[in-house]
């Protein structure tokens, strides 16, 4: 694979990370909106509401409670479970977001030099009657010695 093809592949990968990052941020925003709405319903029910409002909440939430006497308790239980699930999703997504943000800011290890910043090869040198192996190093042409690649580094290199 040529250096140009490798850069294109890395550019695409980092672009996908950025798209996933943006999508996660939006999903977290929507989940936080949903959480606020569920918390509002929960507070409303705990504060005491009319039977009609309980029925309205049941419809808004898209659930159906069979027993009218335990309807409020059922909705309260449902709301608490939904809030727990939303919190778990938000926490998981925030962890993913943090990981992606770190990649986007710090970059990925250069796949050509494995993050070392330099490439080396063994060379055999003859000195008199002896052969000696030495390591020759040169700066990595992909990461230019940095060991890491960011989208900005790759995008500016076209």
Provide structural commentary.
This protein is α+β, with helices and mostly antiparallel strands. It has 2 domains: 3-106; 118-155, no CATH class. Helices cover 61% and strands 15% of the residues. It has helices spanning 3-47, 51-61, 71-106, 151-155; strands spanning 108-109, 118-127, 130-139, 148-149. A two-stranded antiparallel ribbon has the order 1-4. Strands 2-3 form a two-stranded antiparallel sheet. A hairpin with a 2-residue loop joins strand 2 (118-127) and strand 3. Helix 1 (3-47) packs antiparallel against helix 3 (71-106).
Largest sheet: 2 strands, antiparallel
Mean pLDDT: 89
* Quaternary status: single chain
**Count of helices?**
4
The figure for the number of domains is 2
What distance separates the N and C termini?
A: 17 Å
Number of strands: 4
Radius of gyration: 29 Å
Catalogue the unreliable spans: none
User: What amount of the residues lies in strands?
Assistant: 15-25%
Structural class: alpha+beta
Specify the helix fraction band.
Answer: 55-70%
The succession of helices and strands, N to C, reads HHHEEEEH
Shape: rod-shaped
Q: Spatial order of the strands in the main sheet?
A: 1-4
């Amino acid at each position: 694979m040529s250096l140009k093809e490798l850069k294109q592949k890395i550019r695409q990968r980092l672009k996908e990370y950025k798209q996933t990052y943006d999508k996660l941020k939006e999903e977290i925003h929507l989940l936080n909106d949903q959480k606020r709405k569920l918390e509002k319903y929960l507070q409303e029910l705990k504060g005491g509401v009319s039977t009609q409002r309980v029925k309205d909440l049941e419809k808004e939430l898209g659930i159906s409670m069979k027993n009218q006497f335990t309807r409020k308790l059922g909705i309260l239980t449902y709301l608490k479970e939904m809030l727990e699930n939303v919190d778990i999703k938000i926490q998981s997504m925030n962890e993913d977001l943090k990981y992606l943000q770190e990649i986007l800011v710090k970059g990925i290890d250069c796949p050509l030099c494995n993050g070392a910043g330099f490439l080396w090869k063994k060379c055999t040198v003859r000195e008199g009657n002896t052969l000696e192996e030495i390591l020759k190093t040169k700066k990595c042409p992909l990461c230019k010695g940095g060991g890491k690649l960011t989208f900005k580094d790759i995008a500016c290199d076209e």
